[in-house]
Amino acid sequence: MAALFRAEFDNTASDLIRRSSLFFKISGKLKEFAKRFNLVVLVTNQVMDVVDSGEGANEIRIGNLNGMYSSGRRISPALGLSWANCVNSRLFLSKDEYESGSVGGGESGSQSRGTRRRLHVVFAPHLPGLSCEFVIRREGVLGVNR
Fold this sequence. Notes:
This protein is α+β, with helices and mostly antiparallel strands. Helices cover 24% and strands 28% of the residues. It is built from 3 helices and 7 strands; from the N terminus they run ααβββαββββ.
């Protein structure tokens, strides 16, 4: 979703108002289609690095995560609070490099280096705020034992 808006709008008050209005129209139409046709709609957002460590716009808490990190960097959703108010549930996918650990979902998981991914439930009125870890291998998606 962010790719449609980030390049086309300036950071002026009138553009931000217009952009927010379009967010609400698009999300409303997607929710209407989901209900009418019994669909699940998944919309992705981009993230941006958090540069300011003060109380600026990058410090907005969205959901139940105090801070979002991916690949060791602090990040924030690109579309911010306007878009956050348009969605029913928020999931956050992140990835980090790991040195070793049991991967593969069983006690016989292998010790290795690679990329570990996490899926966080940031906000969903019908789900607890939990997360799970997984790796992607040639064999498929494998859960990680903690």
